[in-house]
Amino acid sequence: MRFDEAYSGNVFIGSHKDVETAEAIIYGMPMDWTVSFRPGSRFGPARIREVSLGLEEYSPYIDRHLEEVKYFDAGDIPLPFGNAQRSLDMIEDYVGSIIEAGKFPLGMGGEHLVSWPIFKAMYKKYPDLAIIHIDAHADLREEYEGEPLSHSTPIRKACGLIGAENVYSFGIRSGMREEFQYAKESGMHMYKFDVLEPLKNVLPTLAGRPVYVTIDIDVLDPAHAPGTGTAEAGGITSKELLESITAITKSDICVVGADLVEVAPAYDSSEQTQIAASKFIREMLLGWVQKNK
């Protein structure tokens, strides 16, 4: 399946009908095959789209309107249930076709392992790629209970792919002792607990570089985002994450793609998690799509 094939489901608010003129492609990755606690993030992309209809199309954060960005919601990739490797291969090919077409890929997960094939597709295009990773968890394991394909491994895989020194993690407050030790010894940049202030300090050092941004919704405190598979107490607020997205928008880095993962709607009957996620997607569209032009 390519991103320009027909999709008949709900779309993110303001999605254009003309894929050819679209600057960005929104796509879903409904996979939660390797989660270690609570499944359900495969339903995240569909529900984020549905609740986006309650959004205002104007952002007072950066004074822009969704009419100013041309984007096409291509729907969810039809991933084979339970087959992790085949699903990852399909994601890599799918995102590769978006990049080849010169469009901005904006993905919605799904578990965090879905970011791994995107990293590979982006690295083929941008050999000097840097990654900004915003998350509660280090995701630096080499395997989980003997399985190397796990949602706890994508950032460790990224370090091996692009060089640990090109990976920047923010908001981290959970992981094995060995993961934090690896972060110290490998040369990667890990900032524990906080996001906004360390991010502001790092952004000038990445000026002009192609940067991929991956956001795990569980970086938020469960009070702000209970709808996720592995909630972790002690997180940041929705306001701080919005401010962080705005800081990236106002920086001189070249954002070449992004994703937001781990929204699991079943665990949040109030829908505050998916409502927040849809707002973050709006701000990413408005702020980042044209930064690589």
Automatic annotation (TrEMBL):
Cofactor: Mn(2+)
Catalytic activity: agmatine + H2O = urea + putrescine
Protein name: Agmatinase
Positions with a binding annotation for Mn(2+): 112, 135, 137, 139, 216, 218
Enzymatic class: hydrolase
Protein function: Catalyzes the formation of putrescine from agmatine.
TM spans (from-to): none
Family: Belongs to the arginase family. Agmatinase subfamily.
GO molecular-function terms, A-Z: agmatinase activity; metal ion binding
Any one GO BP annotation for this protein: putrescine biosynthetic process from arginine, via agmatine
